[in-house]
């Protein structure tokens, strides 16, 4: 009898302890593959991208909708990036892809992996105009981006060059869809305003040990300004050679999002770059961007002055809210369901949602009630159009001699037609 009594007591005690124990954390609702450039010509941006996406995941965890992020290095190169994306889709079974950065990487991933597999892909930094009309995505609707098209950046860069009083320009550009698209749109905008483009000189996507021949070609005719459409890995090399050859004595420099770097001035000498302007995706001024910046600074410290950190955050948030919309309707969270709800969670007249765990919790509650939401992103509106594009402001920025070597000058929200 004593043995039975003791056994009953132990069973009762275990039941009490089990009842008092905290509930096991819920598993992730959605699994995302995040393609970032940890190595290669865009490696400088990789760490910031990871911090931004981790921040979004943390906030959704706090809001009660956990997500899982699986990272892969694109190496800023098409072939390894495609293989990495294939592993994320086929092995990790992710329901959405975030990234990549370079257009010359995003497009092959879309054509070879995302679209054939029926997995939505949201790039945060691929600005090539080709993405808007990519033949492989016609009628499929799997490719999105949270950054603008270079059809817009090229116009502002050409306008900026003309406003600086430059009459002639040459362009050195990375030979991929990003470089080609931005170069052509700059040329059209600059020449529309009376300027003359003397040379358009491409260079390989792989970082080379020297660019002497490309520079020699670009500098024929002594242009007033050299527009640098590359990545930090390339530009650090050729700008050193530009200075060593004395080209800086007759020709100014103009930069873009790809050559907006906090590390490059330290490598080259900030005094050689200070005072020269550039363009990049801008962030809408207001509560949404402030909420993102404040949360980032609380988690990691000062927000670096680098492009596309806010847009990659917005990509994760949009995908998570789309997944939550599926879940709220009792639908399976499949890649196709996420795709079909990306526009629904980020458009008027739904109730405005801005970054932050409390705001995401509010969004989840509204979705459960069947009410509409409109996510306004850290970088601006995330109103995806029919092509999966968004429109964000264009920033005009300038290199300075003191850290962090980059200063925002203005935001261009109104973009001319040409």
Short account of what is shown:
The protein contains 14 helices and 14 strands.
- Ends distance: 93 Å
Question: What is the helix content?
Answer: 40-55%
Q: Describe the biggest sheet?
A: 5 strands, parallel
SSE pattern, N- to C-terminal:
HEHEHEHEEHEHEHEHEHHEHHHEHEEE
Q: What's the CATH first level of the largest domain? A: Alpha Beta
Q: How many beta-strand elements?
A: 14
Polypeptide structure, described:
α2 packs parallel to α12 and α12 packs across α13. The N terminus is likely disordered. The strands form four sheets. Strands 2-1-3-4-5 form a five-stranded parallel sheet, with helices on both faces. The chain has a four-stranded parallel sheet with strand order 7-6-8-9, sandwiched between helices. A three-stranded antiparallel sheet has the order 10-13-14, covered by helices on one side. The protein has two domains: 209 residues, Response regulator (Rossmann fold), CATH 3.40.50.2300; 150 residues, 3-Layer(aba) Sandwich (Rossmann fold), CATH 3.40.50.2300. β6, α6 and β7 form a beta-alpha-beta unit. By secondary structure, it is an alpha/beta fold. The protein is 42% helix and 17% strand. The chain is built from 14 helices and 14 strands. The N and C termini lie far apart (93 Å).
Task: Outline the fold blueprint.
Layout lengths: L1 H19 L9 E7 L9 H18 L3 E7 L4 H13 L5 E3 L4 H15 L3 E3 L19 E3 L4 H14 L4 E7 L2 H16 L3 E8 L8 H7 L6 E5 L2 H13 L7 E3 L9 H5 L1 H4 L3 E5 L5 H14 L8 H20 L6 H7 L9 E3 L3 H12 L4 E3 L18 E6 L6 E7 L6
Parallel strand pairs: 1-2, 1-3, 3-4, 4-5, 6-7, 6-8, 8-9, 11-12
Antiparallel strand pairs: 10-13, 13-14
């Amino acid at each position: 009898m004593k043995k039975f009594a003791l056994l009953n007591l132990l069973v009762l005690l275990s039941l009490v302890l089990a009842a008092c124990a905290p509930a096991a954390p819920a598993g992730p609702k959605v699994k995302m593959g995040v393609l970032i450039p940890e190595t290669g010509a865009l490696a400088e941006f990789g760490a910031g991208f990871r911090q931004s996406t981790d921040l979004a995941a943390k906030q959704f965890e706090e809001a009660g909708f956990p997500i899982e992020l699986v990272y892969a290095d694109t190496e800023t190169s098409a072939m390894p990036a495609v293989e990495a994306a294939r592993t994320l889709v086929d092995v990790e079974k992710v329901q959405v892809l975030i990234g990549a950065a370079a257009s010359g990487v995003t497009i092959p991933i879309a054509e070879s992996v995302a679209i054939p597999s029926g997995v939505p892909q949201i790039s945060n930094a691929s600005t090539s105009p080709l993405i808007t009309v990519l033949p492989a995505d016609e009628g499929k609707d799997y490719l999105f981006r949270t950054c603008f098209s270079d059809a817009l950046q090229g116009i502002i860069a050409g306008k900026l060059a003309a406003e600086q009083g430059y009459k002639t320009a040459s362009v050195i550009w990375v030979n991929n869809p990003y470089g080609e698209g931005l170069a052509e749109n700059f040329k059209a905008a600059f020449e529309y305003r009376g300027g003359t483009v003397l040379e358009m000189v491409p260079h390989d996507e792989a970082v080379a040990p020297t660019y002497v021949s490309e520079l020699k070609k670009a500098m024929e005719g002594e242009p007033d300004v050299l527009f640098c459409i590359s990545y930090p890995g390339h530009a650090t090399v050729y700008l050193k050679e530009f200075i060593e050859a004395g080209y800086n004595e007759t020709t100014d420099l103009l930069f873009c999002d790809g050559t907006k770097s906090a590390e490059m001035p330290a490598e080259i000498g900030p005094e050689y770059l200070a005072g020269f302007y550039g363009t990049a995706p801008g962030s809408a001024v207001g509560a949404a961007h402030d909420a993102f910046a404040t949360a980032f600074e609380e988690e990691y410290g000062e927000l670096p002055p680098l492009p596309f950190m806010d847009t990659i955050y917005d990509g994760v948030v949009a995908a998570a809210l789309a997944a939550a919309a599926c879940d709220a309707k009792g639908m399976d969270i499949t890649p196709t369901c996420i795709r079909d709800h990306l526009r629904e969670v980020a458009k008027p007249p739904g109730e405005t949602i801005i970054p932050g765990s409390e705001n995401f919790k509010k969004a989840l509650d509204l979705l459960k009630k069947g009410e509409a939401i409109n996510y306004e992103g850290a970088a601006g509106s995330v109103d995806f159009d029919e092509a999966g594009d968004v429109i964000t402001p264009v920033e005009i920025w300038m290199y300075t001699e003191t850290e962090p070597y980059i200063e925002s000058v203005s935001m261009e929200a109104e973009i001319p037609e040409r």
